[in-house]
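Quick start: what a row looks like.
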Amino acid sequence: MPRSSVMHRAAGAPIWVLMTLAVVIVASTALVATYRHTSPPAAPQAAAAELPKSSPAAAGVRRDSVSRSSDRPRGREPRQPVKRAIPIVRKPIPTLPLAKSDAAETVAAAQASMYNVPGQCLGWSREQADIPSRFMDAATAWEHATGRHSRDTTPPKGAAVYWTGGSGGHGHIAISVGNGMVRSSDAGGSGVVATISLRQLTREWHLTYVGWADSINGYRIRGVASA
């Protein structure tokens, strides 16, 4: 039916018909609007699909909370007792008493000496440095000597030179005058002091050379090491 015909008939209809038609139209419009506002939400699967893959909810993995220092109860930690350091007490290094004569004076006295009591090499040697008696023989004096240089055949001037062996095992002692030479009691014969090479005395007297030291009977002869 043409639109103009419908409108013409509606214009000629009674008033109550027009009013009823208006009420029906308004009611239909309100019903459609109400249905749109009360429609159900989207399905959970669709909402989950919109979440990013990195989201914990999308992955379904439970993550533990990170512990922080601010989460811990604040309180003062107990103080550790401070231990006092025990002072180290260093024992003094024992020093030997010094002989009255130094290396140069000992050499001068030995070269000036011409005679000795036969068989008393330790007594004669210590007397050249003004050292008192203590040990019974040269072998014992070597065992207790300090500043020893075993087997060194070039003793400095003023050093005490030691051998072991001999008759009775008493050994021998002489005074070094440098250049491998020693001043020794009985070297010129029984009771006669003479200068002789260290090697010659060792060979001819059938002794065992053990070395030299800067001390006799517990007394150090000054200047031996630098002589």
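That is the whole record. DSSP finds eight helices and eight strands in the chain. The longest strand covers residues 172-178.
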